[in-house]
Write a structure and sequence with these properties.
This protein has a single domain, classed as NAD(P)-binding Rossmann-like Domain (Rossmann fold, 3-Layer(aba) Sandwich), CATH 3.40.50.720. Helices cover about 35% and strands about 15% of the residues. The chain has helices at about 10-20, 40-50, 75-95, 130-135, 160-170, 195-200, 215-230, 245-255, 290-295, 300-310, and strands at about 1-5, 25-30, 55, 95-105, 110-115, 120, 140, 180-185, 185, 205, 210, 215, 235, 245, 265. Helix 3 links the parallel strand 3 and strand 4. The chain is globular, with a radius of gyration of 19 Å.
Length: about 325
């Protein structure tokens, strides 16, 4: 039996669908049935039912976008840091395995090999000197590994959302058996306000960014494989291998769905301008070394994106 917390959200709904398809016994836990924000009711339920796994998809992501977290900081801390810590403590006390969904936005940039051969983190990937490296997928650029230290933290000027997720992962360090599954810019072929492709196609202006992306159905499969394989706990980057730029995505959408689409590009996101100081959130490249070592394969990014765009379901 699997307990699914946060089953009504975008990611939680995907877990629920895939668990049902796989005929895996599960129970979607709502806060009406069980207030899992509180330790005692949750640990009592875990001891009573003894699920094999708890999946935490719940958290505060902001509405309509993550930038809303800048003005709702208490809710963001409670929904991301405090909730994960409470659930982890309850699972630890009950002897139940826990998987927590996190986000690759706790990183900014990528590793770049400089002229001296040293690898350094470049937080801003939009500079002219990196354009050719990124476009050619140069071996001198690599993504963040699963065990790299997050750099889009509050201390480093990251957005409040990414900063609280970095803090959340830090609070889970005392629970080494816990899985931390990092998705990034999640998408599927289903139109949804949280789908990266939906947000991109409905935005009046786009930002040119290089990023890693996650096909949501592929991600759920990979997360469950990690658990079914009884792999060690810790952080796992759950992204489709490869990376793309916003202009790459526009080209794919024009090729497979909207031939005449010609969106405007801007250097600054309008929502950044609502906050002082700005909510800094750069893009990031991630690598899936732990998945690769375990033989868990996700589709290459170009294939996953092309499939989603070709089979777009506008509802």
């Amino acid at each position: 039996m699997i307990f699914l917390l946060g089953a009504s959200g975008y990611v939680g709904s995907a877990f629920r669908r895939e668990l049902a398809k796989a005929w895996l016994p599960h129970r979607a836990i709502s806060r009406v049935d069980l207030d899992y924000t509180k330790f005692r009711p949750l640990v009592d339920a875990l001891k009573q039912y003894q699920p094999d796994l708890v999946i935490l998809c719940g958290g505060y992501t902001g509405r309509p976008t993550m930038y809303n977290c800048e003005g709702h900081r208490t809710d963001t801390i409670l929904g991301n840091v405090a909730l994960a810590q409470t659930v982890a403590q309850a699972c630890d006390a009950a002897g139940v395995r826990l998987g927590v969904v996190s986000c690759g936005c706790i990183f900014a940039g990528a590793w770049v090999q400089n002229e001296n051969g040293a690898w350094v983190v470049r937080e801003n990937l939009q500079t002219e000197d990196l354009a050719l490296f990124l476009a050619s997928r140069s071996a001198r650029v690599r993504g963040f590994a699963d065990d790299d230290t997050p750099n889009a933290t509050l201390e480093n000027g990251g957005s409040f959302y990414s900063g609280t997720l970095a803090a959340m992962e830090k609070t889970l360090l005392p629970f080494p058996g816990t899985y931390i599954w990092r998705l990034n810019a999640a998408f599927t072929e289903r139109d949804h306000p949280r789908n990266f492709l939906t947000r991109m196609q409905s935005s009046p202006q786009l930002l040119q960014r290089w990023n890693s992306f996650t096909h949501l159905r592929d991600a759920v499969t990979a997360c469950l494989q990690v658990w079914n394989s009884d792999l060690p706990g810790g952080a796992y980057n759950i992204v489709n291998p490869g990376y793309m730029s916003t202009r790459d995505l526009v080209a794919l959408i024009r090729k497979h769905r909207h031939p005449g689409w010609d969106p405007a590009f801007t250097r600054d996101h309008p929502e950044f301008q609502e906050h002082e100081p700005p909510a800094r959130r750069w893009s990031a490249l991630l690598e899936t070394r732990r998945l690769d070592a375990a033989g868990i394969k996700m589709r290459p990014l170009d294939i996953a994106l092309t499939d989603a765009i070709r089979n777009w379901d506008g509802g």
